[in-house]
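Still learning. Show one?

>
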Amino acid sequence: MDRSCLCILGFSSKLNTRHTLAKYYFCTVTSKIASKVSEEFTNLCSKGHIKEAFERFKSEIFSDPRLFSNLIKSCIPQKSLSLGKQLHSLIITSGCSSDKFVSNHLLNMYSKIGELQTALTLFDHMPIRNIMSCNILINGYVQSGDLESAQKVFDEMPERNVATWNAMVASLIQFEFNEQGLGLFSEMHELNFLPDEFTLGSVLRGCAGLRSLHAGRQVHAYVMKCGLEFNMVVGSSLSHMYMKSGSLEEGEKVIKSMPIRNVVAWNTLIAGKAQNGYSEVVLDQYNMMKMAGFRPDKITFVSVISSCSELATLGQGQQIHAEAIKAGASSVVAVISSLISMYSKCGCLEDSIKAFLECEQEDLVLWSAMITAYGFHGRGDEAIKLFERMEREELEANDVTFLSLLYACSHCGLKEKGMEFFDLMLNKYGLKPKLEHYTCVVDLLGRSGCLEEAEAMIRSMPIKADAIIWKTLLSACKIHKNADMAKRVADEVIRLYPQESAPYVLLSNIHASVKRWQDVSEVRKVMRDRKIKKEPGISWLEVKNQVYQFCIGDKSHPKSMEIDLYLKELTSEMKLRGYVPDTAAVLHDMDNEEKEYNLTHHSEKLAIAFGLMNTPSGVPIRIMKNLRVCSDCHVAIKHISEIKNREIIVRDASRFHHFKNGRCSCGDYW
C-alpha cells in the first residue's frame, strides 16, 4: 500500500474518531438533559404540582405516554378525582389507553381515591389485564370494606404472584378473620410461593389477634429459617405478637436482639408495655427513645398519652401534649382521642371538651371518646345530646359509640334511655351486642332495682358470661340488699375465679348490711381457709409533678403524724356539721372507737388530707383510687368539700366523683 493510501486511511481514521467522539458527546449531553428533565418532572409530580408538570413537559409526555403514570400517582394523596378524570381523558385521546402499565395506574388511582365503581368499569373495559390489575382490584374492595368481593376476585384469578397472596392474607387478618388468614398462608407455602417480609408481618399480626403463642412461635421458627429475624418489619411484628399474646419478656428479647432499632421498633416496645399495664415503664422507655435520638411519632404519642391516662398523672400528660403539638401530631385523630381520654381520666373534663372542640374533623372515634368522657363524669344528658347531634350530622354510630352511650346511661340512672339505645343498636343499626354491651345493660337494670330482669338477661344472652358481668350484678345486689340473689351470683363468680377476693368481700358486705352475722362469719372462714386476702385500698395524687401514694392506716409517709392530726381536727369539724361515721361499713371484729379510727384512715381520706395540706387554697384536689369509694368516705368528702371550700375530684374503680359545696356530681348514685 502506498503512502497516499496510508495518508487517506489515516485521515479517514481521524475523521471516524472525531465523529465517534462527537456522537458520544452528543449522547452524553442528551442523556444528562433527559435525566434532568425526568428529575424535574418527577419532582413536580411528587410535590403535587400536577398542572405545572403537565404544561412544562407536555411534549415529553405525549412522546412517552408512560409518563402519565407519575401524574396519575400525584392525584392519590390529594384525592383529586377531577384531575384524575382529566388525565384519563388525555390518555384516551393520546391513544395509549390500551397500555397495561398506564391502565393499571388509572385503576389504582380510582381504587385509592374511593371511586370503586369507576375502577370496576375501567377493569371491565381493559383489553389486556394482568396479575397487577387483579391485585389492585382486591385492594380496592378491601379498602371499601367488601371482603367477599375481594375473595371472589382472588378465587377466580388463573395466575397469582406473592403480592396477590399478601393482599389476601393481609385482608383476612385486617377483618379479624385471623384463622382463615393463617390457613391461606399455609396454602401459599404448600404451593411453593416464597413469603416476603410483608407476608410474615401480616401472619404475625394474625397470631397476635388470636393471642396464639404456639402459632406465633412456629412462624418465628420459619422466620429464622428464612433469615429474616433481623428485618425491621418482621422483627417488630414478632415482638408485637409476643407482647399481644402476653409474653412480654419474649417480645422485649426480640427487640433487644435487633442490631438496629427504628421508630417502629421503639413504638412496638412502648405499645407492648402500655397494653400489658406497665404504664410507668412506658414513660421511661419514651424518655430513652428520645435520648437515643429518635423522634416520637403519632403512634408513640397514643401509647404514652394512654399511659398517662392510666396513671392519672396530669402534669406529665400536659407535658406530652405540648410535645405532641411541637411534633405536629396534635391534630391526628388517634392522638386527639387519647388526649380526650387522658384529660377525662385525670379529672379535667373541660380540657377533654376543649380538645374535642378544637378538632375540625368529624370522626366517629372522637365523638365516641367524648361520649365516654361525659359518662365517666356522670354527665349522661350531655352524652345523649352529643349522640343526637351525631345522628343529625349523619355520622354512622358503631358498637363503640353504643358502648359509650350505655356506659353513660348506667352511671346516671337513665334506665329507660339506656334500654332505648340498646334497642336502637339492635334494630336500627343492626349491630350485634358484645359482652361489654350486655354488662352495661345488666348494670343499668341492676342499679335501677330490676335484679331479676338483669339475671335473666345474663342467663339468656347468646354469649358466655364472664366474671365481670356477674360481679356487676353482685354489686347491684349490694345496693338493693338482696342477700339471697347475692349468694347465688357470688357462687357464679367464685366458680370462674375461686381465688379472687371481690365476690367474697361483696357477699360479706351484703350479709352484714342485712345483719346476717352468721353468714358473714362463714364467708370470712372460707376466705381464711382458702388464704384469700382482700385487695388493699390504694389512693394516690400528684403534687408538683410528684405522685404520692397512700394505703389504709398508712404510717409510712414522713408526715404521717401531721396528716393524722389534720384528719382528727377535720373529723371533729365534720361531726359539728352532722357527720356520723358509718361504722357498720367496717366488718372487722373491733369496738366502735377502733372502727371509727379505721374509717378515718381510709386511703382516700389520707390522700385528701395530704392534698389540702400541700396545695394552695382554691386549687382542685384530684385523687385516684383502685377500688370503689365506700359510703362513709363519700359522705365525708362531701362535708370536707364544703368546710374547706375546695373542689375534690375522686376517680375510683368505677367513675369520677366531683365533690363541690357539699354535693357530689353523681347525685349519690354510684
Observations:
- The beta strands are 538-543, 546-551, 621-625, 648-651, 656-660, 663-664.
- Residues 364 and 397 are 7 Å apart (CA to CA).
- The longest strand covers residues 538-543.
- Confidence is low (pLDDT under 50) at residues 1-15, 20-34.
